[in-house]
Task: inverse folding
């Protein structure tokens, strides 16, 4: 397990959940795309896995929309697991929380023993970009194995720009959104303060970004069908594929 990860730090996790996440550009649109894809897939959501689940925001939305669904949430951060436990308290009987590291295949061993080939959906939000690229590919293979026929994989993800200019535009979009969020708080920081904090954030070194085009091609190689990018804004993308 990556014990040095910034995401194991309770202070950083609380800052992200209480302040920074609200400033992710177009976040509501991305979540709505996820729900729309799940709603219109041939296979109804019953059992699903949430990879890098954080505080369980994706799972909560899915459980609220699909009343017969049950979730396995996987995250390696104890503060995130505890936040998910709190968020999903009312649905505790429909939820399994699993503290496990996606950097190795061992996380699969902590899923229910009948999981392989039985999951209706696998979702992930802003997690897989922390993995080395070869491990990303392996994880996509593991996801494919978990899914049942017509099972759907949806990844809401931070992906790489194709140019330095694209990276700058993306960064400024984040800073604009953070500044707008900042103005709703007591004692808001200046643009310069927000910019400096964003550029020096502790988790930045853990980002291993890869283009959405490459990742979609990988999904096709692995055997996913109907692979497409259903939303993209700067370096934020929602892409998905089915196991037919």
Result:
């Amino acid at each position: 397990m990556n014990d040095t990860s910034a995401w194991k730090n309770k202070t950083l996790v609380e800052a992200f959940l209480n302040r920074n996440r609200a400033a992710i550009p177009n976040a509501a649109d991305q979540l709505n795309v996820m729900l729309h894809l799940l709603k219109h897939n041939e296979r109804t959501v019953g059992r699903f896995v949430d990879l890098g689940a954080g505080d369980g925001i994706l799972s909560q939305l899915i459980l609220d929309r699909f009343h017969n669904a049950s979730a396995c949430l996987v995250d390696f951060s104890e503060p995130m697991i505890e936040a998910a436990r709190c968020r999903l308290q009312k649905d505790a009987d429909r939820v399994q929380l699993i503290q496990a590291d996606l950097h190795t295949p061992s996380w699969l061993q902590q899923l229910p023993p009948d999981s392989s080939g039985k999951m209706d959906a696998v979702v992930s939000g802003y997690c897989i970009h922390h993995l080395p690229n070869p491990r990303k590919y392996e994880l996509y293979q593991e996801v494919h194995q978990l899914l049942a026929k017509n099972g759907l994989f949806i990844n809401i993800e931070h992906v790489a720009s194709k140019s330095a200019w694209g990276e700058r535009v993306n960064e400024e979009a984040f800073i604009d959104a953070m500044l707008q969020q900042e103005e709703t708080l007591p004692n808001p920081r200046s643009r310069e303060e927000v910019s400096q904090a964003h550029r020096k954030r502790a988790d930045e070194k853990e980002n291993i970004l890869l283009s959405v085009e490459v990742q979609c091609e990988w999904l096709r190689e692995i055997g996913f069908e109907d692979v497409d990018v259903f939303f993209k804004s700067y370096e934020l993308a929602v892409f998905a594929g089915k196991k037919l």
Summary: The chain has a mean pLDDT of 92. The longest helix spans residues 164-182. The domain at 6-243 is CATH 3.40.50.150 (Rossmann fold).
